[in-house]
Amino acid sequence: MRRIGTLTDPDQARRFADYLFTLSIECSVDIDESPPASETIGGEDESKPAVTPDRVCNLWIRDEADVSKAKEELESFRQSPDDSKYQVGGTADRIRKQNAAEEKRKKRLVQKVAAKSPGGGSLMGLPVRQQSIPVVISVIILSVIASFSTGVGKPKESQVPGELTSEETIYLALSFADWRDYAVTKDPYVSIKKGEVWRLITPMFLHGNTFHLAFNMMGMFFLGSAIERLQGSLFVALLFVTTGVFGTLFNVSLPPPDALPSILQGLGGSPRLIGASGAVYGLFGYLWIRPLMSPKYPIRMMPSNVATMLVATVFMIFFVPGIANGAHIGGLIAGVIIAAVVSRVPVDQYS
Fold first, then answer.
1. Angle at 112 between CA 110 and CA 116, to 5 degrees
2. pTM of this prediction?
């Protein structure tokens, strides 16, 4: 809030605040009473009437964007405080009553939706299906455990030739391909073809370093929790797995970096990929496109956030080595497609 000035008459201050309210400018009045510096209240002679305290009515503007306009209006008000255009008490009261009625209507709508949904609650003032986010929390916990139990992308090597440490064993078991088999066959799907289909999902829980882990988990928390609260745990779980798997397969299907021109090597594919960023990009793609396809969907991504994600994606392709950009692109594509498909489902429950 910003103080734009003062008035000495409380009635005038309230009248001015009402006038600003009709202009959609929120102004609060803070009345500060203090005795004059040269006189005392009451004094020793009780026969003398007490001095009326000076009153300073501080005018505070809530929104910084309204400060300049409010200052201009204050100068005009000081010149003609009794002008008829400032006699808007009735109008201000009517607007306040209308706003209060609208707030009550919104609260009843939220309560009605929450009563029909498990968990109830709200998300940024919007009706949601549940308050808890067990899937998001589970993904974060599993990612932390899997990452640190494998040395955060650098499993500790055994000092005994031919033996594997526990970190190496876990890392090989959760990677997309067992590197011992891959070294022989050069087939990125060698482990999947042996029936080890869990490898389609488990690489998402491994991470290359603590920054990689922290960045992906923050994305999972902020994007995933919004979707889980609004559309439920089952939906966000399916969205996470589907976009993550699609991102992984998309990355693996790309030609290796050395088969591409140097400027495009950031788009090279490899089965040696870990991390949940493909799924995180899938969540981002879903939240980006879904409200564009479904106007009633109650979550909107800021255009600046969308631009930041897309610019960062391009930047990493051309300037940051060692990134599985194919997983990012694949996950994003999957999220966009799912948003387009799901947008055909009625969303009246969000209106």
1. 115
2. 0.64
Q: How do residues 258-303 score in pLDDT, each as one tens digit?
A: 999 999 999 999 999 999 999 999 999 999 999 999 888 888 899 9
Its CATH architecture, for the domain 2-87, is: 2-Layer Sandwich (3.30)
Q: What is the pLDDT of residue 197?
A: 97
Residue 79 CA from chain centroid, whole number? 47
Give residue-wise pLDDT tens across range 101-159.
888 887 776 666 555 444 444 443 344 567 899 999 999 999 999 999 999 989 999 88
Q: Under CATH, what is the fold of the domain 122-350?
A: Rhomboid-like fold (1.20.1540)
Domain with CATH 3.30.70 in the chain: 2-87
Please, are residues 117 and 128 in contact by the beta-carbon 8 Å criterion?
yes
